[in-house]
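Give me the 3D structure for Serum/glucocorticoid regulated kinase 2.
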Amino acid sequence: MYTHIHTQMHAHTHRCKHYIAGTHTHTHTHTHTHTHTHTHTHTHTHPHTHTDARTDEHTRKLVWSGTHRHVHIQTHTHTHTHTHTHTHTHTHTHGCSQERLRWRRLDNAVCHHGSRPFVLLAKLKADNKFYAIKVLQKKVILKKKEQKNIMAERNVLLKSLTHPFLVGLHYSFQTPEKLYFVLDYVNGGELFFHLQRERCFSEPRARFYAAEVASAIGYLHSLNIVYRDLKPENILLDAQGHVVLTDFGLCKEGIEAESTTSTFCGTPEYLAPEVLRKQPYDRTVDWWCLGAVLYEMIYSLPPFYSRDISEMYDGILHKPLPLRPGKSEAVCSLLVGLLQKDQNRRLGAIADFLEIKNHVFFSPINWDDLYHKRITPPYNPNVKGPADTQHIDPEFTREMVPSSVSRTPEFNASTSSNNAFNGFSFVSNEDSFL
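Predicted structure for Serum/glucocorticoid regulated kinase 2 (434 residues):
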């Protein structure tokens, strides 16, 4: 059995789902902060149709686990809060059929806004090992008709057990009201957090992370799985500084080399042109996203980023890739190849991961050593143990744990449709306490 969610709780893998409708109304929530010797706050609310996604280079991203760049909110108000302190942040809400469910738990605390999934840190009494437990409410899943998505996520988690850069599933189980994923506990912080703190990385550091992510994506492709939501928030660092790719909620199974899919989903800053055009797309959508993440690691913002989401989409669709001077020819060549607007000409369109591996930018990488973690990461998070929360926003360590993580009193179990989650439960071969 588990201890009652130990006194720590961790934002392990972030479930950030995005289903972006073709026609939508934009909702804009805007927050700035400037630092001065005095503080001045004012708030005003008025209707607005402009949408803003995130900060520019002088107003670097939002605090790691506080406000979020895209959240699904069914409102039509514009809130602007301005506080004089030296950080300048913008929060903008894209009010289309898009949902950014950020969830975090830490130190007997939970970021559990309404019905969103949350994660607890638990210790198994049998061996004193720590795990992250992701908890989801069945009633919400059934209401949104997302049973198939949850089962697909479970299936992808099972298949990813053998790869070093994909989060591992140890158990999955259910109660009449809830579903539980018991996952690897990873507390080196999101890549997003480290980027927010450091603005950008050196090319060697960016190469290391991009190589480990590419290895994970290549493995998923070998299993005919397209990831579809690669972004810094879904890339964690472990205690040694290696990449751990997480959140498989938007993965699509059954996509073979010549297959396509057409669901309009993803995160606005990282959407490939073919997705924006609502055209069928293939595995190369993941290589576009890798290019966008690499670009962000090098230049501090995603390619074509604009506060005006329509302008950003126009850039993704029509504008040439902006490459500022001071970067190597190798990384520029890779970015041009990955961020090719025509998916048929994109790097990876023919030989998939093999083309990425063989690019000159990755020539310093020994891929076998990389896979077996024989390459020392360029950055060590200096995690001192499971209780070390230096890479977790304290906002989420202060919140209270719900009175129960297993029961929802108002939920009628008969509505859960017992057959909806048949086959969900799982125990890995290495774990046999259940």
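The chain has ten helices and 14 strands. Let me know if you want a second pass.
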